[in-house]
Amino acid sequence: MSDAVTVADPDSGGFALLSRARAAFTPVVTVREVGTVLAVSTGIALVSGLPQVGLDEVVIFAGGMQGIAFNVDEHAIGVVLLGDYQKLKAGMTVERSHRVMDIVVGAALLGRVLDPLGRPLDGKGEIVSDQRLPVERPAPPILDRSAVCAPLQTGLKVIDALIPIGHGQRELILGDRQTGKTTIAIDAILNQRGKKVVCVYCAIGQRSAAIAKVVARLGALGALAYTVVLVADGTSAPGLSYIAPYAATSIAEHFMEGGQDVLIVYDDLTQHARSYRELSLLLRRPPGREAFPGDIFYLHSRLLERSTQLRAERGRGSLTALPIVETEAQDISAYIPTNLISITDGQLYLSPDLFQLGVLPAVDVGRSVSRVGGAAQCPGYRALAGKLKLAYAQFEELEAFAKFGTRLDAPTRVIIDHGRRIRACLTQDESAPQSLCEQMLVLLAVTAGLFADVPLAQVRAAETAVRALVAGLPADLGSRFAAGAVLTNDDRLSLIARATAGLVPFLAAPGVPAAGAVAAAPANTPPRTPP
């Protein structure tokens, strides 16, 4: 008995479906450029086989990790890795993406913490936005910019009065470790509450614990709602630290181009420069004549040039930058800080000596400068703070001689006594920004010499009492105060009378010298008045 072989009808059942699918299929040829990893080092990889790759183009490794084509040489491509490179091995494949590095932007980022690739780090779910911008973008052209003339209040009297910052300005914050650089920047962010200013805080190379503390502080004080936090901590790959400030600037530019005022903090660019130098060393980039790498100046100049005040035709948005730099042994002539001093529109130098004395914020007024100056102050504020910096600078110069026990004449003693009270009034607690009205009332009291008879140990408490008087001002005077308008003579007399009455509980008893004052002048000297 022979076995029978049954052949299915090709026009019936599943074979008919296969036949129709085969007839409808049209093969498509897809061109892909695939290369091979030659070598892997700390944060970089050498790749071959991508002849058409462009500079700064994103390449995709097997497993999904991204990299940026940094060196485009004849025989190999130097790629900066943007992730954990521990599993990357020589011989693995790499493919072009035909796009440059970009970052997600939009209002959905407000209140979020993310990394330079746009991935959320706060556990609040994915960031939903269909808008993206390249991390590297050209700066706005000169014809699209306008003058810096609107003040950006930091809430710190020593800065707003003596080294003012305006919308669109780039003000460098530099000083040694643990002198309060980040505190000043965070206080400036806290003071933007209710002022319709979007803030971006970019942490580069910081400890995770320090970043978590900053985020918790912003959240507890209600500032996280209008702030975007972009993080590349000390454990991140050097490539992520390198692109972090550029990605944060693109996020800020999205709001600026929408007509909003933006404040961005780079904390700090010393770590950014170190990451870039590390990558340049590993990729064997040639040194320049005066520095290594040769383009270290261009690294930060192309970043900070993107901060500006746009013209009305471009929406009148602004981007104000507060880059932070760490110095060593109070050396502000180090190469990286010097570059940034020449790039920025001024600097705030924090002195370790003032910090140790408890003068906080520890801003060294003699070494700090704002190249915008009074143009970044309200008219009324500028009228009150006009002579304050000169009086404070004279005091600091004379104070150095007074420490040697030099015999001082009466006018010099008056200047030193007045300067000590100015310093005490400019001292301010952390996370306690002060409103424009409070600052103006204190400055009026200081310049009028109302603190002259207050013991030095009581000046801080007396200054607090003067600020509390703002709540009881008449409505019309309070509105002019809040607008920063120039005060009339009647307004000044009324405010001085109120401040004088508020200082009565703090005045020294008759015949008792004010605590901390210099030696009394001879009997024939005129009464003390502020210089």
What would your notes on this structure say?
The chain is of the alpha/beta class. The chain is built from 16 helices and 16 strands. The chain has helices spanning 14-24, 157-162, 181-190, 208-220, 238-257, 269-282, 296-304, 335-343, 352-357, 379-385, 388-402, 410-426, 436-447, 459-468, 475-483, 489-503, and strands at residues 34-41, 44-48, 57-61, 66-72, 77-81, 93-100, 102-105, 113-114, 131-134, 172-175, 197-204, 227-232, 261-267, 318-326, 346-350, 369-370. The chain has an eight-stranded mixed sheet, with helices on both faces. A hairpin with a 2-residue loop joins strand 1 (34-41) and strand 2 (44-48). Helix 11 packs across helix 12 and helix 13 packs across helix 14 (459-468). The protein is elongated.
Supply the key terms.
six-stranded antiparallel beta barrel; 531 residues; elongated; alpha/beta; 16 helices; disordered C terminus
Condensed summary:
With 531 residues, the protein is of the alpha/beta class. Helix content is 34%, strand content 17%.
**Outline type:** elongated
Computed over alpha carbons, the radius of gyration is 31 Å
Main-sheet strand order equals 8-12-11-13-14-10-15-16
The count of β-strands is 16
Put simply, the count of helices is 16
- Span of the ends, CA to CA: 128 Å
Ranges where pLDDT stays below 50 over 5 or more residues in a row are: 515-531
Mean pLDDT: 89
Percent helix among the residues? 25-40%
**Largest beta sheet, briefly?**
8 strands, mixed
Structural class: alpha/beta
Strand content: 15-25%
